[in-house]
Amino acid sequence: MSEPDLEAASRTAAEHAAAVAAAAGTRARLRPSRASALRPDTPEGVCANCGAALMGPVCHVCGQHADLYKRPVWSLIGASISDMFALDGRVARTLTALMAFPGRVTRDYLKGRRGRYIPPFRLYLIASLAFFLILPLVNQGGAMVGYDPNGSQIARERLDQALAAGQMTEDEHRSALQAIDALAAFDTGSQTVTPSGPTSADEIRAPDTEGGTSAPPDQATDAGTPQDPELDAETVVTFRMGEDESPAGIEALRRTLVPEEFGETTVTVTGSLAARTFIANRIERLATRPDRWAAESLAWAPRIMFVMVPLFAALLGLVYAWRRGFLYFDHLITALQFHAAIFIAMLVAMTLSLVTGPGFAVLAFFIYAHVYLYRLLRVVYSSGRVQAVLRVAALDLAYGFLILLGLTAVVLLGAVSV
I need a surface site. Which of 53, 87, 147, 312 has the fewest CB within 10 A? Predict the structure, then answer.
């Protein structure tokens, strides 16, 4: 072969190597590997792991890269940092198609066009991890929950109005106030509750360190502040969260669960004393550590949602039980990518709620989720319009019930973990 032919052949080989490296998702190395005392036992062009003849930078048999990484350490560090922060084209392609064209990624993946997209399980893990990491930061001010610090006071005012209008009896009014006090005990920090309306002075109960008797308003409360009987409507009862002093709501709830501790009858309660005492102790512990309860519940939420994915796949299998050719694997891939899209949509809704408030954000997410599911069934399963609507309704009811069970499990497991 003449000298020009050798030059042309070398150029062609170099271009071919660069094209193969680009197709494999790697870039051509700027520096070859240096000579080393520890060299592969196989000759050049043969995979050192399985012995197969190499047809590119990656072995087509075992998947091992042919690079020996025998280069200066700074070159390796620079390449690693570049790979770490470089955005794979599959990320933008997957997210755009996943969110803007429901069902396209799933259908392409099930039909074998998989190399262009992020694998479903990895996509779900990334989306769920991002959601549960950002959720406490975005919702720190109660953006999505819509917490109203004056909610208990508003509830008391409405109860007073209902009592004045004759819509409830005094016993029902008193029981409702005790329930509000019990719920208020789970709020962090100090609370100041001002009874209003027809509530009389002898109905305002203050916590007693001796465990059960209520002090009249003309005596000193637990805060040491004397009360004036003439100012009963403005009497202030302060609930403080601490280890040496229980809130009045906790005392009232404990009196309801374990009346034996207060020398009262047990006609209104059922169950063993040990079980009721355990529940009362657990509630008191949760009331003194509500932040810990929320943290433990949030830690359980990703695990419960992970269980929800195969359950949703099973529901898809039920609503398409008579469709031949769709296996549980197909339903599972659909469920993984559907939940990934829902997690991303919830992140967008939480961010939007910081600007527009929770109402509009929740409504937009609700509409988007149902339209997404409708389009998903239409594209992946080729369902007709009416059939897709009916299946969305069936999935909505069944999966909504499972979500309620999951949320209940999150709260209970968080309570047990405190």
Answer: 87
pLDDT at residue 300 is higher than 70: yes
260 pLDDT more than 90? no
**pLDDT tens digits along 269-290:** 777 777 777 777 777 777 777 6
Structure token digits, residue 89: 């084209």
Query: Tens digits of per-residue pLDDT, 175-224?
Result: 777 777 666 555 544 444 444 444 443 443 444 444 444 444 444 444 44
The two structure tokens encoding residue 196: 């209003």
Q: How far apart are the first and last CA of the chain?
A: 80
Distance of alpha carbon 305 from alpha carbon 125, whole angstroms: 11
Which structural domain range is residue 246 located in? 151-288
- Provide the residue type at 21 as one letter: A
Q: Quick check: is 9 in a domain?
A: no
Task: Identify the band that residue 340 occupies on the pLDDT scale cut at 50, 70 and 90.
Answer: very high
Q: Does residue 195 lie in a domain region? A: yes
pTM above 0.85, yes or no: no
- Cβ(207)–Cβ(287) under 8 Å? no
> Of 46, 69, 85, which one is at a domain's C-terminal end?
85
Domain count, the chain: 3
Calpha distance 319→326 (Å, rounded): 12
Three-class DSSP category at 26? coil
3 state SS of 53: strand
- The C-alpha atoms of residue 414 and residue 406 are separated, in whole angstroms, by 12
Q: What is the DSSP string of 60-108?
A: TTT--B-----S-HHHHHHHHHHHHHPPPHHHHHHHHHHHHSTTHHHHH
The reply to whether 137 and 259 lie within a common domain is: no
Are the beta carbons of 153 and 364 closer than 8 angstroms?
no
Confirm whether 234 is domain-assigned: yes
pLDDT (tens digit, 9 = 90+) per residue, 315-324? Answer: 999 999 988 8
The Cα–Cα gap between 254 and 390 comes to: 48
Stretch 380-386: mean pLDDT: 94
307 contacts 294 by C-beta, under 8 angstroms: no
Give 282-301 as a DSSP string.
HHHHHHH-HHHHHHHHHHHH
Write down which residue in 288, 308, 326 finishes a domain: 288
Distance in angstroms (rounded) separating the CA atoms of residues 118 and 109: 10
